[in-house]
Give the backbone structure.
Amino acid sequence: GFSLTAAGRRLFLTRQGEIGFGPPEMKPGDCVYILHGGNMPSIIRSTRAEMDHTGSVDGRKQEPVYGILIGDCYLDGVMFGE
């Protein structure tokens, strides 16, 4: 995608062609989510959890996916419940 850093925010273009501004730390592959109870979209980066000492999580051999909150963003048409 396309990005440009200006005035402390990064201009980005989603895969769907939507234009937004986000934190300068965002990277290609980060996702836009509206968190429950929120009124602004946020940039989230997916990451895998480390296995516990038994090599499993909740008794299952899999790695859960967690998200790291990168920051809030402006996404045209997706603000304040639009």
Q: What stands out?
A: The mean pLDDT is 79. DSSP finds no helices and seven strands in the chain. The two ends are 24 Å apart (CA to CA).
